[in-house]
């Protein structure tokens, strides 16, 4: 059921640190906590997953909200105007994973999804249509909004001793991640979804990522290692929006 709410919140899981802020090339990546920015996240998700891809049902609020948002950690890349350009959601192991409930058929028969404390699931990864071809220059080359998003998640995982990420993605995205230096491993066979997309379930090991990218000086690991402390907190106005029950 969709209802109007003034106080929809997505708190981080108990005991987890969530103070990540990195600014580069006119963009910044941070965990999303302000209600105004949470609204932007649900709106971007709606444009991508409901309007563009048709993977989620449309609704009059034009916001994509599901049960996996409860207790999740939101991450976003914003521009200088505070417009949201890229987003993903982290679900911690003390909450249900989508890979368990929605995509068990993508996991190899007989395999068990780990729910250890150092394991999380990444879902709802999306990039605004206008930002998909945009790049920015950093100290270690030219990067995209999505790559900056992964960098923010990497630092959050370091703070919280997270070693492994589960994800369900298009097979093309899986291959691209590996090409970019993110060693994702399949945990099941690719499957053709009803809409024709070839989906895969995979796991990323951050320690393997570090080992893979240690060669040379101007490399992905060196860029990922750069970190900036968060700015002072600014209280933003709250907005009425929809929640799902």
From TrEMBL:
<dbReference type="InterPro" id="IPR001690">
    <property type="entry name" value="Autoind_synthase"/>
</dbReference>
<dbReference type="Pfam" id="PF00765">
    <property type="entry name" value="Autoind_synth"/>
</dbReference>
<protein>
    <submittedName>
        <fullName>N-acylhomoserine lactone synthetase-related protein</fullName>
    </submittedName>
</protein>
<keyword id="KW-0808">Transferase</keyword>
<dbReference type="GO" id="GO:0009372">
    <property type="term" value="P:quorum sensing"/>
</dbReference>
<keyword id="KW-0673">Quorum sensing</keyword>
<dbReference type="InterPro" id="IPR016181">
    <property type="entry name" value="Acyl_CoA_acyltransferase"/>
</dbReference>
<dbReference type="GO" id="GO:0007165">
    <property type="term" value="P:signal transduction"/>
</dbReference>
<dbReference type="GO" id="GO:0016740">
    <property type="term" value="F:transferase activity"/>
</dbReference>
<keyword id="KW-0071">Autoinducer synthesis</keyword>
<keyword id="KW-0949">S-adenosyl-L-methionine</keyword>
């Amino acid at each position: 059921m969709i209802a109007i709410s003034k106080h929809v919140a997505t708190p981080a899981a108990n005991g987890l640190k969530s103070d990540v802020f990195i600014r580069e090339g006119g963009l910044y990546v941070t965990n999303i906590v302000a209600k105004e920015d949470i609204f932007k996240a649900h709106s971007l998700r709606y444009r991508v997953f409901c309007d563009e891809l048709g993977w989620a049902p449309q609704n009059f609020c034009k916001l994509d909200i599901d049960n996996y948002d409860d207790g999740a950690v939101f991450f976003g890349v914003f521009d200088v105007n505070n417009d949201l350009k890229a987003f993903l959601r982290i679900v911690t192991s003390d909450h249900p994973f989508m890979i368990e409930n929605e995509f068990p058929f993508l996991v190899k028969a007989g395999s068990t999804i780990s729910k250890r404390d150092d394991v999380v699931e990444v879902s709802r990864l999306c990039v605004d249509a206008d930002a998909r071809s945009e790049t920015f220059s950093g100290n270690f080359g030219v990067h995209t909004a999505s790559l900056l998003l992964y960098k923010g998640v990497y630092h959050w995982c370091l703070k919280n001793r997270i070693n492994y990420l589960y994800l369900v993605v298009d097979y093309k995205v899986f291959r691209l991640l590996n090409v970019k230096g993110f060693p994702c491993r399949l945990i099941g066979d690719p499957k053709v979804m009803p809409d024709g997309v070839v989906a895969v379930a995979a796991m990323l090991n951050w320690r393997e990522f570090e080992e893979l990218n240690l060669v040379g000086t101007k490399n992905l690991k060196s860029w990922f290692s750069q970190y900036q402390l968060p700015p002072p907190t600014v209280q933003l106005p709250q907005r009425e929006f929809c929640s799902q029950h």
